[in-house]
Amino acid sequence: MTKKLLTIREMCDAFDVTPRTLRFYEAKELLFPVREGQKRLFTKRDRARLKLILRGKRFGFSLEDIRQLLDLYHMGDGQEAQLSKTYVLAEQHLAEMEAQKAELEEAIGELKEQMAWGAKKLVELAKSKTAAA
Fold first, then answer.
1. pTM of the complete model
2. Is the dihedral of CA 125, 130, 131, 133 positive or negative?
């Protein structure tokens, strides 16, 4: 990806996204491709932004959170504001993810218990049918 501008197809291939995804991010003013007629050409800046968007989405950040973080890049403070805000949001998301993980682990444990009970019941029912026959 050393080319200066990438087409929408090249962006899709490079980041494993659909053209619809890129158009959506453009409509949400997260990406700003150069227009040549009907063609969208993506700059190095767009590629960096898309990488951060996809990472943010994977971590559970909302598009609005991501937009705010991207907008902080040009504050002229050596990215201090952007990094500080990112860290605060990351702490919040990590706490939420850990809480969800704990809830999921509890639900998995309960489901396993219910399945064990059900399996035991099925064996008992099968034995009682065999004994009755």
1. 0.72
2. positive
